[in-house]
Write a structure and sequence with these properties.
TIM Barrel; globular; binds zinc ion; five-stranded parallel sheet; alpha/beta; Urease, subunit C, domain 1
């Protein structure tokens, strides 16, 4: 048994924001959520004074590089990073080596993660080998446990194939998750087209219209087919406007945004170089402001990290030759609290909604409220302390937030009656 004492339950499912103790049974199920519970005999206690107790975060977009690229990350180090970041559940993308386009690869990942305090789910690919030519066996991947299908990393360039994928997905009630960047509009990836950093590093950059053009097309196809479609890591103001319009038209569409697109702009690439190189790239301040507005008004549903570890050697290459992507699981809450809550753009409850409740609901994860009868998957959060990140559980250190003063941090996750401290 575990009794979490002196904390404040902050739970968007029940709209609770009250000082409460939480008693969890030996079976890991929450037994009571009440003020001032006396610890039963032999019960372990955790003093959560000054902390909130919330549904653990859900990240619909991480890269654990396993199988195939475990010098960058593996399932176990990725899960440890997720636990340190306050995550209850993460969803791994399918661009592994080999590609996660069969039930066998999905089972390899989920079985390897079975003992982790974090629930690790594995997405399946939309097309075999992410080649954009032949659809995978959607039913088999869903049956193996894939919570969504995605070719993340590359765009589904053929409109006809994309429409066929949506028809199949709609018939099987499968969520499709799309990385939207039309390759012919991306002269070079990783930095915004025309940014000062593009000039500094001698590359042309990626146009925002590469993203907005694909989002516009896929809203039309989602309306046409009735498919549920998620737009990954939205980066541009016009994309948010199109998604707002698409939702108004009745499309079953969702959107995610990363902490770094909410916190940084193309100007930060001048300072951080390859540690601020990602696809889609950081855009302008007006884009960043539009993304925050869209998150606040519900146009963008949720925050996802796109945690993308690479080796230090790869990121030490010249900008043009370095891989895109940055890590994010461990710093996400501190960055979002600093940029969104401490500035008054979101309330703490809204941030929990966008990091926990909304992604859980979109991916069909149930029983997440801090409520008697649910298996405990909780996060204990400090919203006030100054936090500076200098080392990580992830194998990847490719983040621009190292050494940056941030506010607040996850202190622990609770999985059943087990506490995993950061
Ligand atoms: Zn992507």
């Amino acid at each position: 048994m575990l009794l979490i004492q002196n904390g404040r339950v902050l739970d968007p499912y029940t709209n609770t924001d009250e000082k409460r103790d939480v008693l969890i049974g030996d079976d890991g199920v929450i037994a009571r959520v009440e003020p001032n519970i006396d610890p039963p005999a032999g019960c372990e206690t955790y003093d959560a004074a000054g902390l909130t107790i919330s549904p653990g975060f859900v990240d619909g977009h991480v890269h654990f590089r396993d199988p195939g690229q475990t010098a960058k990350e593996d399932v176990l180090t990725g899960a440890a990073a997720a636990a340190a970041g306050g995550y209850a559940t993460v969803i791994c993308m399918a661009n592994t080596v080999p590609t996660c386009d069969t039930p066998e690869v999905i089972r390899y990942v989920t079985e390897k993660a079975a003992g982790c305090p974090v629930e690790v789910l594995q997405a399946g690919a939309v097309t075999k080998g992410l080649k954009g030519q032949e659809l995978t066996d959607f039913s088999a991947l869903k049956a193996a446990g894939a919570p969504c299908l995605t070719d993340d990393g590359v765009n589904l360039t053929s409109a006809g194939l994309c429409r066929a994928a949506m028809e199949q997905a709609a018939a099987r009630d499968i969520l499709l998750s799309f990385h939207e960047e039309e390759p012919s509009l991306v002269p070079s990836p990783g930095v915004n087209f025309g940014a000062a950093a593009a000039e500094k590093f001698g590359v042309p950059g990626a146009r925002a219209s590469a993203e907005t053009a694909m989002i516009a097309r896929d809203i039309a196809l989602a309306l046409d087919t009735g498919a549920r479609v998620l737009f990954q890591h939205v980066s541009a103001a016009q994309s948010a406007a199109l998604i707002r319009a698409g939702k108004a038209l009745g499309a079953k569409i969702y959107a995610e945004v990363t902490p770094h697109h909410l916190a940084l702009t193309e100007d930060d690439v001048l300072t951080h170089g390859t540690y601020a190189r990602m696809n889609p790239p950081l855009r302008r301040e007006a884009d960043r402001q539009a993304l925050i507005d869209a998150l606040a008004d519900g146009t963008i549903d949720m925050i996802a990290t796109d945690h993308a570890p690479h080796t230090a050697e790869e990121k030490a290459r010249a900008f043009a030759n370095a891989p895109s992507g940055i890590t994010g699981l461990e710093t996400a809450f501190s960055v979002c609290n600093t940029v969104l809550v401490q500035t008054g753009r979101l309330t703490p409850m809204q941030l929990i909604e966008k990091m926990s409740k909304n992604p859980a609901e979109i991916y069909g994860l149930t029983g997440r409220a801090v409520q008697a009868g649910n298996f405990a998957r909780l996060v204990l959060l400090d919203w006030q302390s100054e936090t500076v990140y200098r080392s990580y559980r992830s194998k990847g250190v490719n983040t621009p937030f190292t050494g940056v003063p941030l506010t607040g941090a996850p202190r622990a996750i609770v999985t059943g009656a087990r506490v995993t401290a950061r």
